Amino acid sequence: MRKASLVLAGALLGATAMGVVQQHGLLGTAVAASADTYRYLNLFGDVFERVRSEYVEAPEEQKLIDAAINGMLQSLDPHSAYMDASKYEDRQVDIRGEFGGLGIEVMMENKLVKVVGPIDGTPASRADIRAGDFIVKIDGEDVEGMSLQDAVKKMRGPVNTPITLTIKRDSAEPIDIKIVRDIVKVRVVRHRVEGDNVGYVRIASFSEPTFDNMRSAIEEIKSKVPADKLKGYVVDLRNNPGGLLDQSVQVSDAFLERGEVVSLRGRKADDVQRFSARSGDLTDGKPVIVLTNGGSASASEIVAGALQDHRRATVLGTRSFGKGSVQTLTRMGNQGALSLTTARYYTPCGRSIQAKGIEPDILLLPNVPEELKDKVDSKGEAGLEGHLTNEGGEERSASSTYVPQEAAEDVQLQQALALLRGEKTDANFPPNKDSIPADCGIKSQSAKVPADNAGGAKN
């Protein structure tokens, strides 16, 4: 049985749903329900049969069952849900970080699909698809009237299968371009050297390639900037909706020498899992500033919380989303999968960020354009109907999700760069390791952990 762990942020962030999820095979034997429960299940069967046979229009039976299952799960919390086979496959694409497709970034403009740009080395790039092209037909079918999601789904497909795009370029007549689909890897980590002395690493989500991509990014930055000149790193987790738990552990581990990264606690008192770091800091102890905002959720909050508790990094920006729950993803035969909330997670100092979020060490609001001020705030987990409550009773809404496209206009990024370069100062940077609470236990934790419960090897 293959197991993987994720951290579910949800489509509520305007991104594909993700979360702390453990994948299992088919359901095993469950604890027997009470006699009353079985009577209610019989009642459900009677109601279903009455609807199926007597409703004024013949209903789709599968849709009735799916709606009933989802109604049950949605009564629990916003992150428990049933996925049909199609949605489950979409989730697997998010987990793997790759898919069969063309390799183009697109957006909707004037009811047509506009190419933002082809990804280097992909079928779209080789076929000379260009930024600014409009896709007017997909395999002869008009795009106008399609949603962006439907158009993207049509362009994805099995590797080595052909597709014809009808392209409108400038004022010329539309042209047909035949492309053969191939494996496209999602670019989840982007990096660059800011100025000539600060490494910038942007992590968009936590899928299977994330840690390897981040490690490569750090290695490339170190190869470009001599150690004596490198001032430190900015790790940008803004609007990162989450992803795989093991990736969040490994990313945290990359900056830590030892100690707990995160713990998961289920319904039973003894149902606890702890994940710890192995020795070795990929950044050689250089200063780190982590950027967060109201769109930073789940796995990104695990990373921010771990580095903040260990006083390894200063968190700058605004309060994070506040999703501190864990989902288990169970395949249900060939019918789909069940995503069920099964635990909460806690930072190394035992903090639950559920419906509360990570408070930044340095609070800095973005400069939001006037026309967007009512459109970029996230209410966070606390704003979701039916969310799990915070055990401490204190809940807070999230914050702005605005990030400007131009680095020069990004006051949060510019503040981080100025702090790392010593151009500005703040009492919370660098973080003071002596301020770790005495009851946190981080200082006394050993780096040695069981092999099946450790972060990824740092090599």
CATH topology of the largest domain: 2-enoyl-CoA Hydratase, Chain A, domain 1
Portion in beta strands: 15-25%
Note the overall shape: globular
Low-pLDDT residue spans: 1-17, 444-457
* The number of domains: 3
Tally of DSSP helical segments: 9
Structural class by sheet pairing and helices:
alpha+beta
Distance between the termini: 27 Å
Q: Say which CATH homologous superfamily of the largest domain is assigned.
A: 2-enoyl-CoA Hydratase, Chain A, domain 1
CATH architecture of the largest domain: Alpha-Beta Complex
CATH class of the largest domain: Alpha Beta
How helix-rich are the residues, as a percent range? 10-25%
> Number of DSSP strands?
22
Average pLDDT over all residues: 88
Radius of gyration (CA) equals 24 Å
Main sheet attributes: strand count, strand direction, barrel closure: 6 strands, mixed
Keywords: Hydrolase, Protease, Serine protease, Signal
InterPro entries: ClpP/crotonase-like_dom_sf, CtpA/B_N, PDZ, PDZ_6, PDZ_sf, Peptidase_S41A, Tail-specific_protease
GO molecular function, one term: serine-type peptidase activity
Family: Belongs to the peptidase S41A family.
